[in-house]
């Protein structure tokens, strides 16, 4: 990491506290290093005078974000682990959401997962594997991005604040094509979200990954807007089976009924 460029400075808010920005930059620099760093190296990477960095390092050591070993600095383990545990707690779905996840997997035999809003994106926060021998690969906690192409993203967009949709895409409303089936315009996405609200669940028909499909419903848990979505992911051949598809839809509607009873 190096000093912030003029473009990022130009976009900074007027009430920015520069010393706080510099201190957090230093924490990032130390965190990105595989080994402890000396003050001179940190100053060089931050593009700051050594005296300024020395004062900031002393402060960061005092409050616990960094620790000093003779002339070198590394992350303050206790403080960072404490923050990490709090973030993990914020990401952790409720017991009710986990129960719904288990119901879906045991009923359908398919792999299912929970996703949640995090920093303006939709991130997978929990996964439960299904019992079928053929399953969709490359599902892992922490995956995010391309929410217009994912059933979970569309479920949260369709039933969430309308302003969230306006933030997607470029200035012309164009969206990234993950596959040849991906919705690539904001206008088309809005139409798809209308259909999602009408049917009560979102679908991904090979829009995120070729050969894989998904269905998802929002989980409100009594709130005005959903924070979490529950998704079923399945290979294309099972998705196209009418009996399997009916089972998925029936199960997700059961989940929505359970969720509605919590309101």
Secondary structure elements and pairings:
Elements: H1 6-10, H2 18-32, E1 37-38, H3 39-46, H4 50-63, E2 66-69, E3 72-75, H5 77-91, H6 95-108, E4 111-118, E5 121-128, H7 151-159, H8 163-166, H9 186-199, E6 202-205, E7 212-219, E8 228-235, H10 236-239, H11 242-260
Antiparallel strand pairs: 1-3, 2-3, 4-5, 4-8, 6-7, 7-8
Helix pairs in contact: 2-3, 2-4, 3-4, 6-11, 7-9
Explain this structure.
The chain is an alpha+beta fold and about 260 residues long. It folds into 2 domains: about 5-80, Arc Repressor Mutant, subunit A (Orthogonal Bundle); about 90-260, 2-Layer Sandwich (Beta-Lactamase). About 45% of the residues lie in helices and about 15% in strands. It has 11 helices and 8 strands. The chain has helices at about 5-10, 20-30, 40-45, 50-65, 75-90, 95-110, 150-160, 165, 185-200, 235-240, 240-260; strands at about 35-40, 65-70, 70-75, 110-120, 120-130, 200-205, 210-220, 230-235. A 5-stranded antiparallel beta sheet has the order 5-4-8-7-6, with helices on both faces. A 3-stranded antiparallel beta sheet has the order 1-3-2. Strand 4 (about 110-120) and strand 5 (about 120-130) form a beta hairpin. Helix 2 crosses helix 4 (about 50-65). The longest helix is centred in the last third of the chain and has 19 residues, at about 240-260. The mean pLDDT is about 90.
Major sheet characteristics: 5 strands, antiparallel
Helix content: 40-55%
Question: Topology as H/E string?
Answer: HHEHHEEHHEEHHHEEEHH
The SS-based structural class is alpha+beta
Mean pLDDT: 89
CATH class of the largest domain: Alpha Beta
Mind telling me the C-alpha Rg? 23 Å
CATH architectural designation of the largest domain: 2-Layer Sandwich
Instruction: Count the domains.
Output: 2
| Residue fraction in strands | 15-25%
Identify the overall geometry. elongated
């Amino acid at each position: 990491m190096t000093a912030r460029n003029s473009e990022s400075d130009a976009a900074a808010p007027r009430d920015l506290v520069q010393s706080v920005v510099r201190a957090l930059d230093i924490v990032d620099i130390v965190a990105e290093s595989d080994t402890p760093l000396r003050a001179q190296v940190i100053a060089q990477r931050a593009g700051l005078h050594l005296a300024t960095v020395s004062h900031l390092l002393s402060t960061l050591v005092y409050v616990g974000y960094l620790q000093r070993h003779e002339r070198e600095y590394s992350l303050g383990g206790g403080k960072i682990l404490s923050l990490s545990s709090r973030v993990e707690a914020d990401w952790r779905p409720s017991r009710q959401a986990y129960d719904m996840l288990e119901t879906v997997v045991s009923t359908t035999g398919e792999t299912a997962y929970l996703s949640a809003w995090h920093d303006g994106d939709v991130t997978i926060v929990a996964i439960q594997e299904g019992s079928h021998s053929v399953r969709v690969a490359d599902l892992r906690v922490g995956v995010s991005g391309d929410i217009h192409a994912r059933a979970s993203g569309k479920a949260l967009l369709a039933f969430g604040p309308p302003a969230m949709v306006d933030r997607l895409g470029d200035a012309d409303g164009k969206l990234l094509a993950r596959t040849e089936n991906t919705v690539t315009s904001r206008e088309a996405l809005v139409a798809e979200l209308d259909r999602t609200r009408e049917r009560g669940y979102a679908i991904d028909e090979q829009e995120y990954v070729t050969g894989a499909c998904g269905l998802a419903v929002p989980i409100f848990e009594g709130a005005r807007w959903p924070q979490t979505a529950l998704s079923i992911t399945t290979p294309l051949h099972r998705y196209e089976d009418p009996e399997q598809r009916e089972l998925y839809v029936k199960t997700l509607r059961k989940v929505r009924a359970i969720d509605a009873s919590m309101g």
